[in-house]
Amino acid sequence: MAQESPTFSPLYKQIRSLIVQALEAGDWQPGQTIPSEQELALRFGVSQGTVRKAVDELASENILVRKQGKGTFVSTHQDPRAAFRFLRLKALDGRLVQPKSMPLECMRAKAGPEAARNLGVEVGCPIVMVRRLLRFEGKPVVIDEMYLSGDAFPGLTMEVLKDWHGSLYSLFESRFGVRMIRAEEKVRAILADKAVAEVLGVAESTPLLSVERLAFSYGDKPVEWRRGLYSTEDYYYANELS
Amino acid sequence: MAQESPTFSPLYKQIRSLIVQALEAGDWQPGQTIPSEQELALRFGVSQGTVRKAVDELASENILVRKQGKGTFVSTHQDPRAAFRFLRLKALDGRLVQPKSMPLECMRAKAGPEAARNLGVEVGCPIVMVRRLLRFEGKPVVIDEMYLSGDAFPGLTMEVLKDWHGSLYSLFESRFGVRMIRAEEKVRAILADKAVAEVLGVAESTPLLSVERLAFSYGDKPVEWRRGLYSTEDYYYANELS
DNA sequence: AAGTGGTCTAGACCACGTC
DNA sequence: ACGTGGTCTAGACCACTTT
Question: Which of A31, A97, A236, B106 is the most buried (most CB within 10 A)?
Answer without folding.
Answer: A236
